Each structure stands twice: as structure tokens, then as C-alpha cells.
């Protein structure tokens, strides 16, 4: 291991060029290249670094130069940038164009005056926090990595008159088939000496993996010692032999010896086992670049276009206020998601006491935090320098990513437009009338008459209507709200769980009749007293919570012809599912309300007869008198307050059901409850707090528990806890009708106290036993270990992994080819946590299984498939940067994990990188479970699968420590090669040109 002194660089020398401490004991013999993000230690190797190809390539790309959009000149550092924008020439250029002199640079990273840029961590650091930042462990880790990169670069240089081929690249075997890997391939590395006067010999050649936990798949062939002869080539054979899919990287070390010293030359080597055609077809379309912010002028005049008629399809009679965020909260949010902002919101803006009286203000504040983040996120989709094409009365705009819902645009959305490069203070506001696959048709003011070549900046406005309806609901005053907001034991709906003696019922669904938990839940709902707390149906995966809800609705309607029920769910698909299960009810009894913006083609054919459209074909509502006659109305939670908005009186609905309530924010749930509930309204919630909760974009809102659903908050209360609560205030369903026991066992143990009982149909759950795709014929869970690469492309921040896509395609192909176990497309579900992976998988599987459902985890909640293949995507070889949160990303979320692994009925296949997944204790235990039951395929496990897994163990830190120890071996060997020659003046000046000091002029 390298000594601590070696790691403890002096921050003064490294980042300011001079140490201010008289008795400093830290490492001074080091120099930072800001351009490349490497630390050269000793300083003597800096000279070699700036002459090297990696540095020259980055310098040639001008990636560190900042361009002034007003003056169209470039400067080579933030310091020079600040000097430029304060100069008379810049101010004059701004005045001539009637624009503000306060502009942002184009290219590079702009650093505010109150911050410093840490080039190693790629972050702007407040100046007051700089000292603590550079002394922190995370920064020290980046310093070590930067030093290693410089050491490796030094080791890769030819030296002492010896040249080794592949000096400016990698020994790359390319993409090989498993058969080619089985046979083995070799590459020739040519070694030459340019001097005849020295006796130089190769004394050692070794091949090693890039980490201590990996097995090296490369080897070298060269008898040693081997003396080099001037004018004659010496050939080193590098051999790769392996059959498992994945990417393999290694290092070839060649040690030389002459009369004076030993020295080392290294080369990188890599190979990929996979499908070459897939790698070619699915590679990044363009290198990933973060989208640039489109400049936007503050407008003084707005020209409003014409709204689509469908926006007026519902006859609202209740005025909906705007509910604008307060100036104080807006100011705090504009400062970013800082600890100070969070604390100010918590202590100054949130009510000090959280109770029925302050509930509305509490959640309004969190809702505003979320709205601010949603607005900021939309800015990444702003378009610059675009054109419009006129078709009829509309102007069409091509929107990149529209087909993938990036951004998600629907009819009725608002679009704001400014002339690109103009100084005008006007803004055109249009409304989307048409959404096609790649473009949208917008209706503008008659004065909007662009030429075909005229260019504009465009931004999409956040649709605030759903948020305003939530604010409206939160502000409603409801009598006896305590019983559903903060229920106590006194609010329990029953004194004891009812039995068959208390209530004899004729069940509509035969499945419910044989399921005691479901039957108990239905009896309890029917026997609920008025003024009771909400009754909760706790439904783990596959236990039939929606079946139970539907049965309860049927029972209520059959017993009371005058009953009025509102049934809601957070999503359209979940609301449609309730309606589909009740389509034997006539259309005069049930009404499915849809938002006016919903695409008619997305509504299931069975549900359409229960909807209402106006003469233009827009979704709408019948007249109030007819609406009040429906016994059952179904909608999403967000749209549920439509009834209040068109005049349905509070108390009209005797029952309000919210299915999948765990996926809704409390503000969304209240939209269905507060405007319409009275003390006699009975409320029933169903869901699973262990599965996906609401999606919250704002980190501040998440920290303040906006991500905790109404269902989850209630279930933490005493009323819903303990064995005595069952049948009185809640019911936990325990018979799981979905999965084979082997698939259910692990999530059952981790999330459900081993209470779930596998009760699936044997003809389905056992249908893949004995399949050739299984590792163990009686264990229908497979983990396929593959070390791939997560990549991004163009302006999309979403990850994809071609290596995993190829494996998923192979599994699907083989499963469909198995004639002994016929599999149709609709039996297959493929889950990936990233949209980019979903898009690439759909493309790769379009001809193999075009009818298979391929979607994100969120889209699979509440669904099941006979076969589920899960691609986890994340894979990284940067061991020093390993972090359980950031390296795993979405994959590390326990609820997302639970949903993903509980969708399968008969076969679960997980494809992923075990080195990354094992950083998370939940995943590590799961991989151990699969391995120890014989389901592991691919490269062998690299840790002890029988060792206890502890939640408080930082496995990422262990990986980093192993990586540091492994890399320090090379760094120590390379240290002996560093020359003691001083830099020449020209060399020093060339290096200084890349440092953040005021020496450069504008280009």
C-alpha cells in the first residue's frame, strides 16, 4: 500500500500553486493538470504528461475554452472569463445589441463568483466550504484516482530507447463470439530497441485483471529473460481465452532491465464476448453531452394563441384559483437543494405542529417544492434555434425525444416562443392542438407569421392544472377530518372483526369465497360504521387487492340500489383495470371519467362504452342531473375532484375507494377525498407500502417526506398495527396467486415477515421447470452475471447496456424456440430501470418478440407475466468511484427491487453485473440466495455467498479499499521510473497554458 504521505497532497500547492503553511508536512512534490484531471507525482513526470497523446488530444478539442456568445471570442479559464465580462469591450458589445452584459459562457463550466470549481470532483464548491471539501474523504478518493491515472499514463510511455507497439491505443480483441473465445485468439505486440549500445532484456511479462476481485482472462507468451537486439523485432504474444458474455479488461506489464536499472512499460488490453451485430446496431448514436441551457429573455408582452376546444369540454362551475408559490419559498428554492434551504423551509415555512388544522398548509408547501423542481426539469427540453412549418392553421414543431415522452406533451399543453437572437421583449404563447410521433401542432396568435427559415427559442410550460386541483383539495375544510387524517383507536370502523355469523354474503367472485383474508376484508368494509377511519387492504404482490376492492364494490351496489361510490387509482391504467373488472355492470350504472387531454386510443375497448364524449369527440361529462344518477364513478386520483368542480355536492358519495393508494402522494389522495367527503363518507384504501411509492422529483420535498404516501403514513399509526387491527381497521392479504415459491421466497422474507403463501395455479407456476434456460431444473430463478458497460448517448442522461440487451435477446429467442414449453409474446415481460434501456430492448426484440411487454419497473406495478427478464443496466469498472447510491442508481431502491422481482409467475431471469449489485446489502443477499440454490450463471461469484450480509456494512468502501491497494502496487513500481530532470521553461509555459491563472489572452 502506498504510504499516507503519498496520498496527502498539499491543497495549497495542488490548487493554488503555493503553500502558505511554514511547517507543512503534506506532499508538495505533485502538480495538477486541470485540463486532464490528473495529478502528476513527482512533479518531474508533468513534463512527460503534457507531451503525451492523452493531454494533446484533450487540448486539441478545446474542451476547457469558454466562448462569449456576445463577442464570439474564447478565453482559456474562468479567471480570464471574469476579466473579459467586466471589460469595456464586452460591455460595449452588449450595449450595441441591447442585451445584458451578464451572459453565461458557452462551453466549459461556468463558476459563480462565490464558488470554486473542483476539477477532480466536477463540482462547484462554495468558497467558504473549499477547505473542508479538499480535506474530505470523497475528494481524497478523487485525488488518488487522479494520481493513479498519471502514474498509469507514465507507465504506458515508451522509454529508455525501447518502443512497444500499441503505444497510442489499446490492445483490443474486439467483439468475439463465445466459440471464438473458447478457441482463443492472440495479438502480437512488437518490442524494439532503438539503441545498439545498451544491453536491454525483457525480464518479466505478466497479464493481470483491472481489479483484485476479477480473474484475468488474458495471458502472455514470451520466454524470459529475452535480450532485445537492435534492428530486430521481439514479439510478445497476448492471448485471450474465455466463453462467458461480457467485457474484459486487463493490463499487460513488460519489465525491462539494462546495466543500470529496471523499468516498466504497460499496455491496456480488452476483449468482449457477445453479439457483434448487436454491439454495432445498438452502440451510442452520438457521444453523450449534457443539453445546453437555452437563453431566455424576460418578456414584457405576451401574444396568446388559440386554445384547443377540448379544454372547454367540461362545464366547470367552481373557480379554480392559481395558487402561486410565495416569494419567500420561491427565493429559497432558487438557491438550490442546499442544507440551508431545506432547514429554512422546515423551520420557517412548514407549520410547527402537524395536525388536522395544519395538514393543508404542510402539504401545500411540499407541493410547491415539487412544482418548482418539475418546472426546472422541463428546462432541459427547451429548444434553441428551431423552425416551424405551417400546416393549415397550425404551426408544427419537431420535438426530439417526443416518441419516448421526453418531453411528455399532450394536447392542451402550453408552448412559449421567442425569436432566436432578437432583442424583442415579446413572447408568443401557443397551445398544442395535435401531437404526432415526432412533432406537435401549435395554435398561435394571428400575428405569428414566421418565415420558413426564421429561428426561435421554445420552452414547454408546466401544466399546473393538476397541481392547482391538489391545492384546491388541500384547502377544503372538512368536518371531523381528524378521523381520516390522524385517526385514533376511537375512530376504528369496527369493535371486532365480523364473522360469517354476523354477515352472511353471497360472493360474486368464487376466488374470494375460498380466501379467508379477502372475505374478511369484504365483510369488514360492509360493516364499517359511519364516521370511521379509513379501512386499509394491505395487499402484497399477487394477493388480489384489486379483486377484493371490486368484490366490495359489487356487494355494496347489490345491497343498496341508492349507493353512490367513487373509485379511484393514481394512474389511468389502474383506474381502467377497476372498470374492466366491472364491465358486466350496465352503462347507466357505471361512468369512467377521463381527463379531456387523454388520448382516446389509449383507453381499452372494454372501457370505452362507459366514457362520455361531446359532439367533437372530446372526453367530457354528461349533464349534472344524469351524472348524479350513476351508482359508480371511476377516475384517477388527480381527476377525481372533477365532481366537485362541476357541482357534485360533498357527501354525494357514500364510499370512496382508492386502489394502489401507495403510489399516490398524500396531496393526490386528498384530491379524491377532501372536496367530496363528509363525516358519513366511508373511505377504503388498498395498496402495499413495500412496493413503489409516488415519484418525487424534488430532493427537498423527498427529504420532507413528500414521498411517503397517505397509505404508508396511516399504516405507521397505532390503529393499523398489531394483530388486533386485522379485520377491524385493516386486513393483510397473504395468499399470493402469482409466483412459484422459489420466486416468492426472497421478497417474502425481506418484506413480508414470511407470511405470504404461494397459491398459484400449478399449471402456470411450474410450467418452466426443467427448461434448458434454468441452471437448476427445479429452481426457476436465474442470475446471469455479466460485466458490461453502462453508456449514454446524445443528450439523453438515461443509461443503457448493450451487453445485457444481447443476453436478454438470447434468453427470449431460446425460450420461444422451446417447442416442449410453448411460449407466446404475451407471456414475456422485460423490465429495465432506465428508459434508454427500454427503448434499445424494444428495438432489439422487435423481430424476436414484438408483442412482449418491455417497460420500466413503474409500468409493471400491478402486472404479471409468466416470464420476467430483468436487466439491471448499471455496470462500472471505476472501482474507486464505487458508491452504493450513485453507482447503482435506481436499482438500489428497495421498493423498485420488490416490484421488479415479484412480477414473474414461472420464471425470473436477472441479468446484471454482480460487482455493482453486490454493493447493496439487499441485492447481495438476493444474489447469495440464487447462488446457493443453484441458479447462478456466467462468471463465478467473487465473494463468500455463505457469509452473513449486514445492512450496516459499507461494501462500496470495501471495494474502494481493495481497488486502492491493487492500484498502489502499480504506482509504487512506476515511481522508480520517474525522472529527476527539471522542466524546461518552454515545457513549463505549455503546462501553465492549461492552468486556471491569468496568463492567457483571449483567442
From TrEMBL:
Its EC number is 3.6.4.13. It comes from the Eukaryota. It is an enzyme of class 3 (hydrolase). It is found in: Cytoplasm. CDD domains: DEXXQc_Helz-like, SF1_C_Upf1. SMART domains: ZnF_U1. One of its GO terms (molecular function) is zinc ion binding. GO terms for biological process: regulatory ncRNA-mediated gene silencing. SUPFAM superfamilies: beta-beta-alpha zinc fingers, P-loop containing nucleoside triphosphate hydrolases. Keywords: ATP-binding, Cytoplasm, Helicase, Hydrolase, Nucleotide-binding, RNA-mediated gene silencing. GO terms for cellular component: cytoplasm. Belongs to the DNA2/NAM7 helicase family. SDE3 subfamily. It catalyses: ATP + H2O = ADP + phosphate + H(+). This is RNA helicase. Residues 28-62, 63-97, 113-146 form the U1-type domain. Its main location: cytoplasm. Pfam families: AAA_11, AAA_12, MOV-10_beta-barrel, zf-met.
